């Protein structure tokens, strides 16, 4: 597949959405690298490829593509690849890292129809690899992916698990009496925009992650004729609770998932919205956070390991 041409340099092209990680592009690239971080390579990408079930000749749309870590996996499977991201700088890095692997286009995930080169119902599959949790509002993003998929097409979503990894509202702890590592969750049902400080030090910059309960994703997909046929809850590849009891730490790693993977298929005939929401208007609060086509995110804040004293228990935020 031919690569795209760049009409403007990333230094002069503006990000397509206010949630773009464009100001963090070079720092993020240094942390993740050309092939993805350890979490990407060992857990996230294998999970996504398993759920995608890519077949030769298919066309796959990567939404929030970042620097294109997924592109070579898709092309090696014999499929065509197109990546969309709001950050011109990250896409410039994608072109440098993965020239010839596909097309990379700057655009807002909420407005895929406005991106030159994308057509309605032209993709067999779409994927959000750790990117949808950094896009808001959710509803127009899901509407956009439904627009891009062929009837019968599928979308795969990988998130840090919303039930266990609520940014700044969850963390690991140690129960001395029971000799076990536990996961503390302070809140879950209320959608929450969370400022995330990255690049520690004087040049620290802040972006946002958007926590949502799982039901918002399930109901939002269904309301747009995208019905879930697979859900995977995926543990991390190594323990991160930072306690001295290795056995307890490994048990918690295996039992408390790091990622949630969802696969949904587009109905060949539209689903009546009233039926999809049980006779009620489709759920989902109308939130006005500025945002949209975010980029693939790191998860360095999943378990930062900050120790907080407790009564008889040790707790870490994250």
Structural description of this entry:
The chain has 318 residues and is of the alpha/beta class. The chain has a single domain, classed as Vaccinia Virus protein VP39 (Rossmann fold, 3-Layer(aba) Sandwich), CATH 3.40.50.150. The protein is 23% helix and 27% strand. The protein has eight helices and 13 strands. Strands 3-2-1-4-5-11-10 form a seven-stranded mixed beta sheet, with helices on both faces. Helix 4 links the parallel strand 2 (80-85) and strand 3 (103-106). The longest helix is centred in the N-terminal third of the chain and has 15 residues, at 38-52. The model is unreliable at 1-11 and 279-318 (pLDDT under 50).
Topology (elements, then pairings):
Layout lengths: L24 H8 L5 H15 L6 E5 L7 H6 L3 E6 L2 H10 L5 E4 L16 E7 L8 H11 E12 L9 E6 L4 E6 L6 E7 L6 E7 L2 H9 L3 E9 L11 H10 L3 E8 L6 H4 L29 E4 L3 E5 L1
Condensed summary:
The chain is built from eight helices and 13 strands. The chain is of the alpha/beta class and 318 residues long.
Which features characterize this protein?
Rossmann fold, four-stranded antiparallel sheet, 27% strand, 13 strands, 318 residues, seven-stranded mixed sheet, alpha/beta, disordered N terminus
């Amino acid at each position: 597949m031919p690569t795209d041409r760049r009409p403007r340099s990333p230094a002069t092209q503006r990000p397509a959405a206010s949630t773009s990680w464009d100001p963090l592009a070079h720092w993020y690239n240094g942390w993740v690298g050309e092939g993805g971080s350890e979490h990407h390579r060992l857990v996230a990408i294998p999970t996504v490829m398993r759920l995608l079930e890519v077949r030769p000749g298919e066309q796959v749309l990567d939404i929030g593509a970042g620097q294109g870590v997924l592109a070579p996996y898709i092309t090696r499977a014999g499929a065509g690849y197109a990546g969309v991201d709001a950050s011109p700088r990250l896409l410039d890095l994608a072109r440098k890292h993965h020239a010839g692997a596909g097309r990379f286009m700057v655009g807002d995930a909420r407005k895929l129809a406005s991106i030159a080169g994308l057509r309605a119902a032209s993709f067999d599959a779409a994927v959000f690899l750790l990117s949808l949790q950094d896009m808001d509002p959710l509803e127009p993003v899901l509407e956009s992916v439904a627009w891009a998929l062929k009837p019968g097409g599928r979308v795969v979503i990988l998130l840090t698990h919303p039930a266990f990894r609520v940014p700044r509202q969850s963390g690991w702890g140690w129960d001395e009496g029971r000799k076990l590592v536990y996961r503390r969750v302070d809140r879950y049902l209320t959608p929450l925009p969370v400022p995330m400080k990255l690049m520690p030090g004087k040049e620290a910059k802040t972006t946002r992650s958007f926590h949502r309960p799982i039901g918002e994703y399930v109901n939002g997909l269904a309301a747009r004729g995208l019905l879930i046929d697979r859900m995977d809850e995926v543990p991390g590849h190594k323990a991160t609770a930072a306690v001295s009891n290795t056995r307890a730490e490994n048990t918690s790693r295996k039992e408390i998932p790091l990622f949630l993977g969802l696969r949904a298929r587009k109905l060949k005939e539209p689903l009546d919205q009233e039926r999809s929401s049980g006779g009620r208007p489709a759920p989902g609060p109308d939130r006005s956070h500025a945002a949209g086509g975010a980029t693939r995110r790191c998860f360095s804040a999943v378990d930062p390991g900050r120790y907080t004293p407790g009564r008889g228990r040790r707790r870490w935020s994250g």
